[in-house]
Amino acid sequence: MPQYKQFPLPDTAEGLTEAEILTWHVKPGDEVKVNQVFVEIETAKAAVELPCPWDGVVTELLVEVGQTVEVGVPIITIDVDPTGSAPAPTSASASASAGSNGKIGEEMPGGRIATLVGYGPRSGAAKRRPRKDAPAPVATAPAAAAPVAPAPAPAPVVAEPVAPRGGYVPLAKPPVRKLAKDLGVDLFALTGSGPGGVITREDVEQAVAAPTAPAAVDHGTRERRVPIKGVRKATAQAMVDSAFTAPHVTEFLTVDVTPMMELRARLKNAPQFRDVKLTPLAFAAKAVTLAVRRTPDVNATWDEAAQEIVYKDYVHLGIAAATPRGLVVPKVRDADRMSLRELAVALDDLATTAREGKTTPADMMGGTITITNVGVFGVDTGTPIINPGESAILALGAIRDMPWVVDGQVVPRKVCQLALSFDHRVVDGQQGSQFLADVGALLADPGVAMTY
């Protein structure tokens, strides 16, 4: 007889609470194999592909694309015995299975379901976010023991669908929509007083009782609304937490980087660099890892709970990267142990992976200091916000041809602006200034690296 198993959304990264379904790679009726990728989800950190833990046939997709689901909530049902060759489970065998070593998807003691990572399903249904032009999902059961005649129930109140304007549909329950239609009230002209901006019956009735006001300007066709979720939501929360937790100080330095650019031109023709994308960012990354040696405070972490400052003898260098899903900050692990060539290769691989949306959650955790390269957008500098858990971030500005005084003469030079934001709880002004000056000196005269 068929044996159905439900796969709950696993915790793919430390602290994950929910994820959005991006793409289903299977549909009901498809055969699946162990380790076959069957769904792609987007967490607060990255897009992740999930493998199937069983062989079988898909009987039901429990969650639609675009739906946000809590960790532990089942997302798919699979018949792991479609041929009916396995004997039907008895209560005794079910109890024995629950007390076994807990294979993925099987019931554990206490009713939990073993998952790839994390814990079994929590009670409660999946949280649904508003979606454009999509009907409400209809829950179906993969199989039933015997048909049961449904009890008679009153017909539900059905309101005619409201056509979106510019992708926006007013939030209101069907009875409220029907009331508005009967009374001739335009829901698009109302501001909901309910939770989350939901339009209530009282809002409609007040609109009828209120005196006629001049018609509001309809901007619907020139506006669009996009739900705040995924990477964008996580980034926004992290930046707010950092800005209102760590006391930021930002210092600026303008540097003549002509010697660095000349060295870059020479190295690009060297045999060991001919197949490497050698960018100014690679030089900045090397300068940061060297400067950290003299000012380890910028690579430390403030531990509020333990009331300690954690000094780290390694550099996991974060690189801010713009992607179609928003800003992500993947890390170059142990960047302080890498040569300039190794850093250049690592940065190129990191950027390619980020643009493709394939950066894993693990690759974005545990950074110690970050560089944001605003220069690639033609921006001179800025005041970057420190990533949570770190104490400093360096902004690398655009490199421009500018007039510069050399030996009393004004000559054209390659000039770049640097900005360093640091946590003043960990880094004093003298330490922050020393670090920024060291980075600038290494870019202005790469030969200074010989002294480190």
TrEMBL record:
Entry EC number(s): 2.3.1.-
Q: Which GO terms describe its molecular function?
A: acetyltransferase activity; lipoic acid binding
Q: Domain (Peripheral subunit-binding (PSBD)): give its ranges.
A: 171-208
> Which domain of life does the protein's organism represent?
Bacteria
Q: Which Pfam families match?
A: 2-oxoacid_dh, Biotin_lipoyl, E3_binding
Every Lipoyl-binding domain range: 4-79
Q: Where is this region: Disordered?
A: 84-139
Name this polypeptide is given: Dihydrolipoamide acetyltransferase component of pyruvate dehydrogenase complex
Source organism of this protein record: Saccharothrix carnea
